């Protein structure tokens, strides 16, 4: 859910349900790394409610698009982590196999 | 100090932070009173006034990111994640602990229990026993679902210590026997003198086929971690029950957590700021409780301290506690180098757990993108 105004698209707060620090903190990191972002942050309004508010203010671009892009960035990072990790594990197993022989 | 005109100052290399700022950005300083520079500087424009771009480009991340496996066996693994931010490493850790599904005993039907362990305590103990089965082969059971072969595993426990045995006997988790055909207990609503004697009486589960007919379980039956004490029975006592396991998440209850624990620590960095020789070197080696330092011989019978095992450093700061030592030894942590350890409970091997965790973070991002568009 997005809270913002139609006059100014460059600032908005997004409410993500069923999410917590796990996603919000990672998104805050990727958002902060985006040069289009002027300010971003997140808060959990109440600890027993499973939702987070993510605030994004940009230098001009629509905040929604910037947030979507940083989700995309985070996904790309994850994909790279996964492929690198799988490669490292495969290499380790191969090495171990050749050492024990 | 003589005055130097601004234009005579040495020019800094383009797109590089001055050394001291670079150090503050990438290291945590562990001083003897308190750590400093613990924060991570994320904002892309943090160094804009110096003309330096602090944003992270994906290709740069790909160039710098490395994974090194240190130890790997079927239960636990240790690996280094190099070149990643704490927020993402922490996301993986949090997902490993609380958002990866496993199977755990959720319902216990007690037919008879005369042991001193109360039924609810017994049920709780049974719940915590890790079940060695791949949770990806099962579905979640929602509130109005009927337990079937796709969302429920049934175990039977029947243990009796005979009246004349004269000894206390221990019930272990090995005594839980898997029932591939589902529950054997007939529902109380079922009419026992039913008109059709051939119809099977309705039980607590409604399996359409036996679980051991599935290719995944036909050769390796579902077991639990052996050797866990469930209860102790005196002579004449008996436990007879059925335990129904279903799929769940660690955030609902820790029994569904697939890891005993998952944690990371930043790589310790121990730097000798000055040469530490002779008696000082001996003293330094003796100070360290985890044996980080070694002594090397230099010419003419003199000795010098070296840092031999920085990874072992626990940052206890014993070596810099006494006055004067902080100028000789620097303890730091590398902010983007994580020593990650995963201890699996046995449902899935640790390397699979980590790839699943990364996959879940990806799915979360994808969900947000689709919800927003």
From TrEMBL, chain A:
InterPro entries: RBP11-like (IPR036603), RBP11-like_dimer (IPR009025), RNA_pol_Rpb11_13-16kDa_CS (IPR008193), RNAP_AC19 (IPR033898), Rpo11-like (IPR022905). GO terms for biological process: transcription by RNA polymerase III; transcription elongation by RNA polymerase I. Transmembrane segments: none annotated. Belongs to the archaeal Rpo11/eukaryotic RPB11/RPC19 RNA polymerase subunit family. Residues 12-83 form the DNA-directed RNA polymerase RBP11-like dimerisation domain. PROSITE patterns: RNA_POL_L_13KD. It is found in: Nucleus. GO terms for cellular component: RNA polymerase I complex; RNA polymerase III complex. HAMAP family: RNApol_arch_Rpo11 (MF_00261). It comes from the Eukaryota. PANTHER family: DNA-DIRECTED RNA POLYMERASE I,II,III, DNA-DIRECTED RNA POLYMERASES I AND III SUBUNIT RPAC2. GO terms for molecular function: DNA binding; DNA-directed RNA polymerase activity; protein dimerization activity. Keywords: DNA-directed RNA polymerase, Nucleus, Transcription. Pfam families: RNA_pol_L_2 (PF13656). This is DNA-directed RNA polymerases I and III subunit RPAC2.
UniProtKB/TrEMBL annotation, chain B:
The keyword Transcription applies. Residues 76-371 form the DNA-directed RNA polymerase RpoA/D/Rpb3-type domain. One of its GO terms (molecular function) is DNA-directed RNA polymerase activity. Keywords: DNA-directed RNA polymerase, Transcription. GO terms for biological process: DNA-templated transcription. Residues 191-210 have a biased composition (Low complexity). It comes from the Eukaryota. Residues 189-216 are annotated as: Disordered. InterPro entries: DNA-dir_RNA_pol_insert, DNA-dir_RNA_pol_RpoA/D/Rpb3, RBP11-like, RNAP_Rpo3/Rpb3/RPAC1, RNAPI/III_AC40, RNApol_insert_sf, Rpo3/RPB3_RNA_Pol_subunit. One of its GO terms (cellular component) is RNA polymerase III complex. It holds the Pfam family RNA_pol_L. Belongs to the archaeal Rpo3/eukaryotic RPB3 RNA polymerase subunit family. HAMAP family: RNApol_arch_Rpo3. This is DNA-directed RNA polymerase RpoA/D/Rpb3-type domain-containing protein. It comes from Lactuca sativa (Garden lettuce).
């Amino acid at each position: 859910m997005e809270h913002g105004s139609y006059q100014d698209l460059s600032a908005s707060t997004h409410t993500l349900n069923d999410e917590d620090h796990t996603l919000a903190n990672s998104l805050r990191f990727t958002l902060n790394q985006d040069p289009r972002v002027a300010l971003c942050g997140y808060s959990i309004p109440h600890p027993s409610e499973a939702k987070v508010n993510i605030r994004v203010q940009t230098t001009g671009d629509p905040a929604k698009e910037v947030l979507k892009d940083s989700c995309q960035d985070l996904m790309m990072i994850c994909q790279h982590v996964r492929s690198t990790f799988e490669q490292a594990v495969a290499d380790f197993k191969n090495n171990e196999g050749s050492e024990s022989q | 100090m003589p005055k130097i005109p601004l234009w005579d100052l040495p020019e800094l290399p383009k797109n590089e932070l001055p050394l001291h700022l670079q150090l503050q950005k990438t290291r945590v300083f562990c001083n003897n009173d308190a750590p400093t520079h613990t924060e991570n500087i994320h904002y892309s424009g943090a160094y804009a006034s110096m003309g330096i771009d602090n944003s992270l480009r994906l290709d740069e991340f790909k160039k710098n990111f490395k994974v090194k496996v240190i130890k790997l066996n079927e239960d636990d693994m240790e690996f280094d994640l190099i070149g990643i931010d704490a927020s993402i490493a922490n996301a993986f850790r949090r997902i490993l602990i609380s958002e990866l599904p496993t199977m755990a005993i959720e319902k216990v039907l007690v037919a008879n229990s005369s042991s001193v362990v109360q039924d609810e305590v017994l049920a709780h103990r049974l719940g915590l026993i890790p079940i060695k089965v791949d949770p990806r082969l099962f579905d979640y059971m929602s509130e109005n679902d009927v337990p079937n072969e796709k969302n429920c595993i049934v175990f039977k426990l029947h243990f009796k210590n005979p009246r004349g045995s004269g000894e206390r006997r221990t019930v272990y988790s090995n005594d839980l026997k898997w029932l591939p055909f589902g529950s054997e207990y007939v529902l109380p609503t079922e009419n026992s003198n039913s008109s059709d004697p051939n119809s099977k009486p309705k039980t607590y589960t409604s399996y359409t086929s036996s679980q051991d007919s599935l290719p995944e379980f036909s050769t390796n039956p579902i077991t639990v971690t052996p050797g866990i004490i469930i209860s102790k029975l005196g002579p004449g006592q008996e436990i007879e029950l059925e335990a129904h396991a279903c799929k769940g998440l660690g955030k609902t209850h820790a029994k569904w957590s697939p890891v005993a624990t998952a944690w990371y620590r930043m790589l310790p960095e121990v730097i000798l700021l000055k040469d530490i020789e002779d008696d000082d070197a001996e003293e330094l080696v003796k100070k360290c409780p985890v044996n980080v330092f070694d002594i090397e011989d230099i010419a003419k019978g003199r000795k010098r301290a070296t840092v031999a095992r920085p990874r072992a450093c626990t940052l206890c700061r014993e070596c810099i506690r006494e006055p004067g030592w902080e100028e000789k030894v620097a303890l730091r942590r590398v902010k983007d180098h994580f020593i990650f350890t995963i201890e699996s409970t046995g449902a899935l091997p640790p390397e699979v757990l980590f790839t699943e965790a990364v996959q879940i973070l990806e799915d979360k991002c994808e969900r947000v993108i689709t919800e927003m568009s």
